Every structure is written in C-alpha cells, then in structure tokens.
Amino acid sequence: IMHRTHIGVDQDFKNLLKQGVRAAISDGWGGSMIATELQDILFGTPAPILGTANLGVLREDEVNIIIHGHEPLLSEMIVAVAQEPEMIELAKSKGAKGINLAGMCCTANEILMRHGVGIAGNFLQQELAIVTGAVDAMVVDVQCIFQSIATVAECYHTKIITTSPKAKIPGAIHIEFDEHDALKSAREIVKTAIENFPNRKGNIGIPDNETVQIAGFSHETINYLLGGMFRASYRPLNDNIINGRIRGIAGVVGCNNARVKHNEGHIAMVKELIKNDVIVLTTGCNAIACAEAGLLVPEAAAQYAGEGLASVCEAVGIPPVLHLGSCVDNSRILIAATAMVKDGGLGDDISDLPAAGAAPEWMSEKAISIGQYFVGSGVFTVFGVTWPTTGSKEVTDFLFKDFEDMYGGMWAFEPDPIKAAHLMIEHIDKKRKALGIDKARERVLYDMAMRRELV
C-alpha cells in the first residue's frame, strides 16, 4: 500500500483512492474489530453502567490522576493499582483523602464502560484540566495528546507522564509501560502522582459541571435489551424502523476541532437527528460531548427526541443516544449494522439500511480511515469543518458521487451541523423509500375467509 505513494509509482487518483478503501476496510473489519474483541476478552464485555462527565469529576481533597490516550492495557493497570490499600494509605499520608481517577479522550471511554471511572473531558479539554490546578499527574500514551500540555503544566504543579517509547514529550517524565511487568509500571506512575499532591500551589478552581451518563452499549447488551435472555436480537429495532416510530439510525463519532466552538458541531447535529426520530450510536469524543450535554440518559428522550423515538426509548428504558465506546469501538457499529441486515426486513446489505454516519468536528487522520471504512461498507458519511479534496473537482466528485455506485456508500461534506444532519435524514428517507417503508401501512385484521385465500 505505502509503495504506491512513493515518487514515480501510482499516478492515477482513482486507483490510489480505491487502494485507500482497501486499507480502511482492513482497519475497520480487521484491526479495529480484532482489537475490540480482544479487549472484551481481556477486560470484559461492556454492559450499561452509570458514570459522570466533565471537569467536575475532579476532587480537591484527593489525588487526581488523569489517564489520557488510547491503550487500555495501561489504564486497566492504573485502575487496579489505584485501589490497592497500600496506595490509598500512601495518599492519606500525604494529606489526601484518597485517589481519584479520571479519563480523557478514548481511554476515558474504555475505563468508564468497564469501571464507571468519571470522564474529565474530551480532546479540547486536556489543557483545561491542568488549568484547574487540581491534577497531580496526567498519564498519556498515544494519539490525540496536545503538544502543549507539558508547557502548560510548567505553570502548575501537574506532572505529565509519558509511557510509550513512540510518544515522548520534551519536559515530561517518562515512565515506560512494560506489558510484561505491568503492575510495577503502574505502581511507579501512581506513586509519582501521590508524591506530587503536597506540591499543589493553592489556586485550585474546579468547575462544578458534572453530568450523569449511561455508557456501555455493546452489541451483546443491545441484543439483550431488545430481545431478552432467550430471544436476543435486533428484530424489535428493525420492526420499529419499518413501522416508522424510528426513522433510521445514525453513527455520529469523531474528534473535537479547534476551528469551531467546543462540542457545538456534535451537540447540534445529534439533537437535530434525535428530534427527527433518528436513533444515534456514538463513540469517541462525540460520546463525551453528548455526555456533557446530558444526552446519554433515558430522560433525554422525552426532552429532545421526536415522539416516535421517545416512545421506543421509554419502552426499552434507553437513551436516544447510545454510547458504544472509544474510537476503536466503531467496529461495534459495524457489528450492529450487520445484525440489523441479518435479522431481516431492511434489505440484504448494509448499503440498504436507512442509516448514515458523520464526524462533525473531525481533525485526526484516523477519522478519515474510519469514515472510509464506513463508506466502503455502504454507509453515507458526512464530515464537517473542512475537507481535504475540495481543491480538486475530479477527486471530490469521485468520492462524493462515483463511490456510491462502487461501494453503496459515499462521502459528503457540510460544515453546518444542522444542514449536515438533514443531509443524513434525506439519505435515510431515500433508503426508506427504496425499501417501501416510507409510508405508514394500514393495519388489516384478517378474518377466516381472508386467511384461507392466503393458503
């Protein structure tokens, strides 16, 4: 794949983009899918769990450790070590009441789903967490780490601890995480944070923003909630899409982008979708944005969702926005889409489903890969803020038009989150019409004579 990008090799943009789809499909249906399954095997399959979100999860009288990044092995070990009696006693000996863990970015979603650890924030809140003056250590591994956090931390007492040999930061402490002696590495990290507690400078300002959320909606959980112990399936979801109570399904995921107001694109799009009876599946920083906006609780259905979607959410007892996990857990959305097709009534392929995807504030390279594997799987996918190919009409038309004939899905770009939501709704309505479920059907009660005619 990479050889094609070397000078003097592949010079046909269509051929390059088609190879990009192959690479993305191997990411989504290969790497991400395998990673999700292995994490569930190692650490347990997530189930619905109550948690909290926003900077208010920090505690003034406890040692605050923020775990930031994407590798769950590190965060799982820190969660385990922070509960050890020896570590708690050490924290008390330094004047703290205990140890408080909080997550940031995708690591936050991982430890929330399996342990109920509070989320301090998403991508654009990592500096703000340090500025509270209450963070004794921010432990980072890979991806989405601000280059500036060590510089910001110099103004406070916070220690930035890097743990990966491929992600070092000047000015940070490096404690390499050794998977073969994981607890030893985790204990050194937690001990460093505890010993830094007495060094706080006094000016601590923790916002009182802290919202309740429910996360942990894995494929297995959704199956159980919809069908129970013995008839677990997506059939009730399909039936409610067919009868029109639910208009369709949307996967809204992805990063924060500093070019727009924090979380605004995420919240505006998601609220518009659920208002129009589209149930939303969310991961990554979008999930955290939805949590901070109070959209990840069942009560949000009555307040924000359309009448049809609200009635289904009330009957099942779920939020109108389902938190499926971190960015790697976009594979759970693929599994859900596959299960919907398998259970019948909504076509024979993912591209037949009344479904759409979006990343309204994307900024990371992996967001393009995630979007590409959804497009390659047959999903209409809208990105916001900016788009890298608008300088070439030919390339853009190939992505925005020709891809649909090739893969069943295609790209779209719309920086306005409300307009983007309506592009998704229009696509969902197009798919409903193709399936013949765009109009309500009159319910007919059959008498015996009518039943005999059917035989």
From TrEMBL:
<dbReference type="GO" id="GO:0006091">
    <property type="term" value="P:generation of precursor metabolites and energy"/>
</dbReference>
<keyword id="KW-0004">4Fe-4S</keyword>
<dbReference type="GO" id="GO:0043885">
    <property type="term" value="F:anaerobic carbon-monoxide dehydrogenase activity"/>
</dbReference>
<dbReference type="GO" id="GO:0042542">
    <property type="term" value="P:response to hydrogen peroxide"/>
</dbReference>
<keyword id="KW-0408">Iron</keyword>
<dbReference type="GO" id="GO:0004601">
    <property type="term" value="F:peroxidase activity"/>
</dbReference>
<keyword id="KW-0479">Metal-binding</keyword>
<dbReference type="InterPro" id="IPR010047">
    <property type="entry name" value="CODH"/>
</dbReference>
<dbReference type="GO" id="GO:0050418">
    <property type="term" value="F:hydroxylamine reductase activity"/>
</dbReference>
<dbReference type="InterPro" id="IPR011254">
    <property type="entry name" value="Prismane-like_sf"/>
</dbReference>
<dbReference type="GO" id="GO:0016151">
    <property type="term" value="F:nickel cation binding"/>
</dbReference>
<keyword id="KW-0533">Nickel</keyword>
<keyword id="KW-0560">Oxidoreductase</keyword>
<dbReference type="InterPro" id="IPR016099">
    <property type="entry name" value="Prismane-like_a/b-sand"/>
</dbReference>
<dbReference type="InterPro" id="IPR016101">
    <property type="entry name" value="CO_DH_a-bundle"/>
</dbReference>
<dbReference type="Pfam" id="PF03063">
    <property type="entry name" value="Prismane"/>
</dbReference>
<protein>
    <recommendedName>
        <fullName>anaerobic carbon-monoxide dehydrogenase</fullName>
        <ecNumber>1.2.7.4</ecNumber>
    </recommendedName>
</protein>
<keyword id="KW-0411">Iron-sulfur</keyword>
<dbReference type="GO" id="GO:0051539">
    <property type="term" value="F:4 iron, 4 sulfur cluster binding"/>
</dbReference>
<dbReference type="InterPro" id="IPR004137">
    <property type="entry name" value="HCP/CODH"/>
</dbReference>
